[in-house]
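TL;DR need structure tokens for one chain.
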Amino acid sequence: ATFTNEPFAEVEDVVWGKKVTWTPDGLAYKGAEYQISEGQQVEETISDRFRIFVFREGSAKISLEDSQGVMQESDMEYGKGFRVQSGQKFAIRVVGATRIIEGSEVDASETVEKELFTTESYVGMDNSKPWGWEHIFAKKEDPIAMKILHIEEGEGLSLQAHEKKIESYYMSYGRCDMIMENTNRELI
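>> reply
TL;DR here they are.
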């Protein structure tokens, strides 16, 4: 496996503000934060891949195409996530400066399954964690998942390793120490 424990963020100026990508190339997914400037919008476009949008702060509305081809608008609120399928139209409109997190597949899918199009927000909640709680913005059949972890002060995640799962972390707020294994199998 190729391990990386170097912080990574690539900032790109776009028409509607800034896009901060926090996953390096070579992964099967991308994680990014959309920093949308006041009065701007992400123009209506057809998604070329599976995406999950999670609202972080500000004021925004998302328009999603339903399975009948009709655009449906919904308020984006903290703790809500919206799943966008390959081939589904979407647009995001903001009032004030807004931050939205996006997770997406890297490889564009040529398969369009309109019966999977949904305009409903989705979030699962798990309060059973000894360190706090997590919001889960994906379903079991989704190719990627996004989570918001809320770790209580003084708590921490257990040391873990995955054979198949690849994870990236983006610190939204707060402060923590990260302990990771390097390529020499040392914890740093």
